[in-house]
Design a protein that fits this description.
Elements (H helix, E strand, L loop, with lengths): L2 H10 L3 H14 L4 H6 L3 H8 L14 H10 L12
Length: about 90
């Protein structure tokens, strides 16, 4: 059994609190998004005010928080185009 397989097996024997502790340990080491490294912060503290939601969705803006999270995690670069008035 490889070390990874052994770790995976051990995780199946852990309860939620233990898995959460392991997650936090790994989360401190690995960023979810490259922006975290650039800003020297975690996405969890930024997304609520750095990822605005649109009143009406389009290709660059969404009115759905989970879609915004998916876009952030994908690393896809969105371009903001001028609206009808701009």
């Amino acid at each position: 059994m490889s070390q990874i397989d052994h770790i995976k097996h051990l995780l199946t024997t852990c309860g939620p609190a233990q898995r959460r502790e392991v997650f936090r340990l790994l989360r401190d080491e690995f960023p979810i998004h490259p922006l975290e490294a650039a800003l020297h912060t975690k996405a969890e503290g930024q997304i609520l005010y750095k990822q605005p939601l649109a009143m009406a969705p389009n290709n660059d803006w969404t009115d759905d928080f989970l879609t915004a999270v998916a876009w952030l995690r994908s690393g896809e670069k969105k371009t903001i185009r001028a609206g009808p008035e701009g």
